[in-house]
Design goal:
The protein has helices spanning 4-12, 14-25, 35-47, 103-122, 147-156, 203-215, 256-275, 296-314, 328-332, 360-373, and strands spanning 54-55, 61-66, 72-78, 92-94, 97-99, 131-137, 160-166, 172-177, 179-188, 192-193, 225-234, 240-241, 244-253, 279-288, 319-323, 337-340, 345-346, 354-356. The protein has 380 residues and is of the alpha+beta class. It folds into two domains: 4-178 and 290-373, Zn peptidases (Aminopeptidase), CATH 3.40.630.10; 179-288, Alpha-Beta Plaits (2-Layer Sandwich). Strands 1-2-6-3-7-16 form a six-stranded mixed β-sheet, with helices on both faces. The chain has a four-stranded antiparallel β-sheet with strand order 4-5-18-17, covered by helices on one side. It has a four-stranded antiparallel β-sheet with strand order 11-13-9-14. Strand 4 (92-94) and strand 5 form a beta hairpin. Helix 1 packs antiparallel against helix 10 and helix 4 (103-122) packs across helix 10 (360-373).
Amino acid sequence: MLDDQAMAYVESCQEELGALLWTLCGIPAPSGREERRAAFIEGWLHDTGARGAFTDGAGNVILPLGDEAGPVTLFMAHTDTVFPDLEPMPRRVENGVMYCPGVGDDTASVAVLMLVARYAAQRNLRPAQGALVFAFNTCEEGLGNLKGCRALMERYGARAQAVISLDSTLGGMCDRAVGSERYRITARTEGGHSYAAFGNRNAIHALSELVCALYAQRVPEGGRTTYNVGVIEGGTSVNAIAQEASMLYEYRSDERRCLEAMRASLQARVEAMRAGGLDLTVELIGERPCMGEVDPERQRALVRRCADAVERATGERPRASAGSTDCNVPLSMGIPAVCMGAYVGSGAHTRGEWVRLDSLPMGLRAAMDVALGLLDGAEA
C-alpha cells in the first residue's frame, strides 16, 4: 500500500504521463529496431537522476537498484511494438483518449515503468537484500523471439528470484505460459510459362495443399492448442507458374506435450509431401517455451501481490489467464513470473489501438505499489 508521499507523486504525474506517452509513441520501435526508443529512455533516466541506467548488448535499458550479486527481482516492460513502421505513426488525442498503433502494447507500460523507476532512483530506495532491476527490454513482439528477456535471464541466471512484466490492460493478468513454435515453410517447383508449360507443378498450389492438410488436423486433447498460417507469398506474375512460394505457420499450446504432438503432426505432413517429390524446406524462426516446474506457493504469492496492487488501484480484481509474454522465459526456467496491466484501452495489434489517459495514474499506482513493496523502507 502506498504512503502519502507516493500517492502525492502518482497524483502529480497525470499530465506528465500523457506527455511522455505522446513522446514515446513518436519514436518508432519495431522488434529489432528499438535503438532510438532505448536511447531516449536511457537519456531520460540519466537526466532525472538515475545515473546507473545502461543499455546492454541486446538493446535492453537496465536500471539496477541494490546489490546485483544477491537475489534479483526484475520489473520490466518491452520497448518494441508489433508494427514494422520506421516513421512515426499517426497520433491523436480525442476526449481523453490517445490513439496510436502500439500506444497500449506496450508503450503505455513503458511510460508507467519509467516514472516508477525515477521515483525509486531519486529516493535511493533499495531492497533489504539483493536488487530490484528495472528493465526496458527489446524483441517481445512477433519474430523478436523474446531476445531481450532471454538476455536478461542469461545475465542474472539463478540469482533471478521473480519477474514482473507490465504488458496488459488493468483488467487482465498472465500467470501461465503459452508456448509456441513458428516456421517459414517454402515450396519449390519447376514452374514455367502459364500457357507453354501448362501442367508443370505450381509452388503456390503445392503450398496450398499443405495449408489444407494442416487445417484438417485435429489438435491434441488437453490444454488449449491453436494453429495459424499468418502469411503466404510467392510467384512472379499472373502469366508465370510459380516456382517458389512460402508461408509463416505457428502453433501454440499451454501444454508442452501438445506442442510436441503438433510438431510431430507438421513433420508427418511435410514428409508425406516430400515423398511425392515436392521440394519443401522448413525453417524454425521462433520458439517460445512453455511452463516449467515453478514452485506453486511462490508463484501464487507473486500473483497475489500484483493482483492486490491492481485491486487497490482500480477497485476491481484482474482476471488471470494463460498467455504468450516475456514471462514465458522465466516460467520455463522455474522462476515465478507474472504479467500485470498498466492501462485501460483496446485494439492491441491493430492500427486503431487506443488508451484512456485517465487510466494511466491507476496503472502507475499499481506498479508503484508492487515496486515499493519490494524496496527497503516501503510498505509491502
